[in-house]
Amino acid sequence: MSRLFADDIVALLRQRVETGQWPANSRIPPERDLAKEFGVARNTIRRAMSQLEAEGTLSRQIGRGTFVAAANSNALAAIIKRMEGISPADMMEIRQLLEPAAAAFAATNASVSELNAVQEACNNANSATDMPDFEHWDAEFHHRLFICARNEFLREIHNIMRILRNQPLWLAMKKRSFSEERRQTYCIEHQAILDALLRRDPEQARRAMLVHLQTVERNLLGRGEPSQV
Amino acid sequence: MSRLFADDIVALLRQRVETGQWPANSRIPPERDLAKEFGVARNTIRRAMSQLEAEGTLSRQIGRGTFVAAANSNALAAIIKRMEGISPADMMEIRQLLEPAAAAFAATNASVSELNAVQEACNNANSATDMPDFEHWDAEFHHRLFICARNEFLREIHNIMRILRNQPLWLAMKKRSFSEERRQTYCIEHQAILDALLRRDPEQARRAMLVHLQTVERNLLGRGEPSQV
DNA sequence: CTAAATTGGTTCTCTATTGGATCACATTAC
DNA sequence: GTAATGTGATCCAATAGAGAACCAATTTAG
Asked: Could A156 and B82 be called an inter-chain contact, meaning their C-beta atoms sit closer than 8 Å?
């Protein structure tokens, strides 16, 4: 087996916390004892613990010992980890809940300069020639629309979706489903959303966004119709 | 059989990343090992890896190894940190988007044992005598309902909301707005949601949940009606 | 109250592993 | 034949782990 023991130690220690073997707020054994127990150098234990301390799982105090932190930060770290494994289908389902609503909010809440930013992204996506360039302005279009919605929580949820969609698995999927014909469809649908925003029409914006997301889902997950190639 | 060239190696390595054989953030075998495995020279592996590194699929670190570039966990952690500062109004707005939909999903997707778990939480909330106890089973009721919805992403978003609602500011707010009369109202509304789930009626579940959340919002944010001091 | 023991914090050297860079040579494609 | 590409080898640079020594804060024994 390869080296990089510290990462293994991190996993082992985290497991003991998560299984309740080391309850919240309890003191865990001294670094020197753990080093002996795992058969590694104290340095390695320390590196592992530093990582767990950074992510909030442990808290260390000179002279006193190392303690299992309260559940909060622990849970957040676990959520992040679980989110990286979410299926595209699950995410598309939630996008179809949130983004039409975001579009409706945007129609009423957006400032003129925010709408201009959306328009700019839309135009850049229209004139993009290669796929990465289009990808970027497409993402930017949706992101700027979420900013228009003026709901911080909604915006941050979209930030999460944006990061997850940039993972290799997603990129491969998007690349597979991309075609010039589809790009043009997306541009037309973007324009319809933008028009509704500019007319300040929440219901139309919601509908246009839903239509767009259904197209994206069909193309991405291959539901409903046979695709080209 | 044809020889393997750098471009073939690129395709093979990319496939391993995209299929999840090499998960995000994991360390891949050393160049020397891969060279042996594919039966090519280390330089060939290196050329392939350089390409994957340039396109962002891999990240290499001298002395450590080569890693699958993944969703930036730091960025996700930063998002959650920003989320800690969002306003209750913003969150209630999104809850009213997500939870009615979750209730509708739950009506169709839940297993009987999952529904039993919801019922148990509902009963425990009904018979709770003090506020912390009710708080706990109220949260549990909503959480178990999200599990019924069978959408991982939705469930994790709710986990985040749950953690945020346990922060001191929120707790003070909930405490201020709590009364025995309101507790009873919540219990009746919970029961209505549960009944709709048991009848497998998505539309009724959606409506019942929306009614409940509007009550909660009115009580929590003091909208629409004057509240006690 | 004081001194000793405990425990985390820091720094050092040594060794093994691993990616980075370069070279001469062989093979293949045109 | 020439150019491009892969092979095999060598050396360099960065990093992690082992092991040890010492410091600083806290707790405990007396």
From this structure: yes
